[in-house]
Amino acid sequence: MATRISLRILGRTLGAVLRLAVLRAKAHNIREPMHFRRTFRACSVFVPGRLVLSLVLGCAVLPYTSLLAAGGSSVGVATTNGAFLMDKASVSGTATLLDGSVVSTLRSSSRLQFADGSRLELSPGARAKVFGKYSVLEQGVGEMAARPGYHLEAGGLRIETPGTATARVQTDGLKAITVAALHGSVRVLTGSGELVTEVDSNSTYTFEADADAPLPGVIQGCLFAVGDRFVLLDGPTNTALEVRGSMLAALVGSRVEVKGKNATCAQPLEGTTKVVNVTEAKRLSDGGCGPIRDAFMAAHPNISTERRTKTKCKVIAGVLLSGAAGGIAAGVCCKDTKTPVSVQ
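Now predict its structure.
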């Protein structure tokens, strides 16, 4: 008798959990993956006797445990004209956004509408992680129009849209991001909240965190002068850098080893790949650099030694700011949207 009562209680408990999981899945408009159904059928077929109901309910609940575990608070609603992925589950039409959800668009764009009225449009192929006070654009293009207190993060930077401004942001998931300001100026800040710049309306800039960072390790090569500028060239790899520093004139014609930082906005001398501001330099050996210099000058007979900087390039608070040609193309969602669904 005690065993039967225990089985009945187990069956009812599992049934209640199953109903909760199914209701949550329906509220999110999430389709059951095929392996969920196969698991249910397998449990139904291979479990005999009077334990069938209880164990089948248990087997049916297992596939939904990820939904139950991910039951964070609701932060808004996602809408699309096609389908997208939310936490790797397929969603079509409209679904509730939970705190910490990851939304990945497929062939259609999606609109994420947050509880405070902020909005984030994701173009096809984009991915973002959403929270109650901010979203993180991990890949692709996103267009943000946020209320005060909500912001978008990308590439380690923070983007704010004061007033009626809209920011269109593009990232490839690496360090660089591109920000276009629409309908007003957009603020770009470091992750710690230090202002980098304001992007004026109808302007587009590219940003890269950790610009002018120290170079890893040391660089070795032959040092020679071109006018009043200096080139460090590694013969075996034929890699040439323009190097700058007050200590270099005394080392010309020698093989040297240097440490330094990138001079990101400096326009490198013709034939070199970038400019390095040298902080330390030491002589490794004397002489032997004449033929290397002669070969370099023969390859660049009309070289100009005029110092220049890149157009619209600045480094502010360790962030590279440079002008970007054109704007950022983005998809727009959504026509004939469905009524939002909320989870209590």
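The chain has three domains: 2-69, 74-208, 219-311.
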